[in-house]
Design brief:
Length: 480
């Protein structure tokens, strides 16, 4: 892999002191984006003109003695569901073909204020519906370690972009594992913060009570810096919360003998691959050797998390996708004879199979006569899941488990069976239902040379503590 960028802090320092420049970094990223396209299909839109213009402005500001911010001149890639002003944003779906964003996502604004430069939009499962990017209307993103395999999803393009070294960091969204699972499949770091810590304003919604915005990076310290820049209250998103008063950078070293880690028992009952299990057990032994107290913890309701998620998420999807009607923006069928036919034709041709599937499921579970039987029960289970996590975090500082039951699967292996594809989320959806922060960290390779991830979780709004422990795991794993 070409993960050869220095840390974000080192890059910004080099730009500020003149040993590098925003223009140089941007050119390097743009060249790499162009070079990978045919082989990996990690990106679907390049923002060359706008990126170079921003880079020039940053270099000019530095020459004038101004401080452009902690991410001065650093190029990044945003998933295609982030609105970027005056740029096409399609969420990898044909129904949004030609849609030019009239405003910009709050997270992008925050990164630009800190001096970062967006160079491209990453491929993804259309509207973030999927675990493999095979649902993209622009073709599948291929895994950097094996092009016959998926990069994961729905933020597969973002994870592959970082693994390939196109940019030092990328943005993803995580509704049921869409940052963590592709990060695990591509051997990089993927952070899903506490729900509401990063504004969702200007990000095309999937499931509004589940969606989280987070960074994908090569290192924990880089994820922490990007989170620090993006996090906090936003008047344009009423669900946002305050960031930690200490911020998320300057992570001191944890003392492992003070740490209690709970290993989620249920995640070892889900058809877990032997090599994924063995790597996790090896890591746990290392942590115990360092003084950490490690023991099993049972969260019984997590067995119901996947079923619960695939009622709540499609319900919210069906509501959020109702705005794509062929009238206001995006694709509109011009051959229709009346308004109803315009709706039917535009949505029928514009949406892919997975979007239609989730709209149908979501509309069904919310419909009269079925609401109580499905949606209300799922919300009750969600409350049980939240309560079980809250109880666990009274006894443990962290919970740990696999990110996915297997390493990256073959392209086409699960795409014909939606239920098999949904099972790829079996170990990640509970964190979204509970609203807790969770991070995927590289945990070695299997015998085929494919990356394995480990998932670490902490209590709500304990994102700083999560990053402290994640950095410790990163250090432990570096001394193989």
């Amino acid at each position: 892999m070409q993960q050869d960028w220095p840390t974000l802090k080192e890059l910004a320092t080099a730009v500020k002191n003149g040993s590098s420049s925003a223009i140089d970094l941007t050119h390097r990223a743009l060249e790499r984006v162009e070079r990978q396209q045919k082989k990996y299909n990690a990106t679907i839109l390049t923002l060359k003109e706008a990126a170079l213009k921003r880079a020039e402005a940053i270099d000019r500001a530095i020459a004038e003695g101004k401080d452009p911010g902690v991410l001065a001149g650093i190029p990044f890639i945003a998933k295609d569901n982030f609105l970027i002003l005056n740029s096409e944003t399609r969420a990898a779906s044909n129904i949004l073909s030609g849609f030019i964003a009239p405003y910009q996502a709050s997270a992008i604004n925050a990164l630009e204020r800190a001096g970062a430069v967006c160079v491209a939009k990453a491929n993804m499962d259309a509207f973030a519906h999927g675990a493999s990017t095979e649902n993209s209307d622009f073709g599948v993103t291929k895994n950097p370690y094996d092009t016959s395999r998926v990069a994961g999803g729905s933020s597969g393009g973002s994870a592959a972009s970082v693994a390939l070294g196109l940019v030092p960091f990328a943005l993803g969204t995580d509704t049921g594992g869409s940052i963590r699972q592709p990060a695990a499949f591509c051997g990089v770091v993927g952070l899903k913060p506490t729900y509401g810590l990063v504004s969702r304003n200007g990000v095309i919604a999937m499931g509004s009570s589940l969606d989280c915005i987070g960074p994908i990076t090569s290192r924990v310290e880089d994820a922490a810096l990007v989170l620090d820049v993006m996090s906090g209250r936003d008047e344009l998103d009423s669900t946002t919360i305050e960031k930690d008063k200490l911020g998320y950078t300057n992570l001191e070293k944890l003392k492992l003998d003070k740490v209690k880690i709970g290993v989620i028992s249920e995640y070892f009952e889900q058809g877990l691959d032997d090599e994924v299990k063995a790597k996790l057990l090896k890591l746990l032994k290392k942590l115990e050797a360092g003084g950490a107290k490690v023991s099993n913890v049972s969260l019984p309701s997590t067995k119901l998390a996947l079923a619960c998620y695939y009622i709540i998420a499609p319900a919210e999807v069906s509501s959020n996708l109702s705005r794509y009607d062929g009238i206001r923006y995006g694709y509109s069928d011009r051959d229709a004879n009346d308004l109803e036919q315009t709706y039917l034709n535009s949505r029928g041709k514009g949406f892919g199979k997975e979007a239609k599937r989730r709209i149908i499921i979501g509309t069904f579970v919310l419909s009269s006569g079925y609401y109580d039987a499905y949606y209300k029960k799922a919300m009750t289970v969600r409350t049980k899941i939240i309560n079980e996590f809250d109880a666990a975090f009274k006894d443990y500082d962290y919970l740990i488990g696999p990110v996915a039951p297997t390493t990256a699967f073959k392209i086409g292996e699960k795409s014909k069976d939606p239920l098999q594809m949904y099972l790829a989320d079996v170990m990640t959806v509970a964190a979204n239902l509970a609203g807790i922060p969770s991070i995927s960290l590289p945990n070695g390779l299997d015998e085929k040379g494919l990356p394995i991830g480990v998932q670490l979780m902490a209590g709500r709004q304990n994102d700083r503590n999560l990053l402290l422990m994640a950095k410790m795991i990163e250090e432990v794993n570096s001394h193989a």
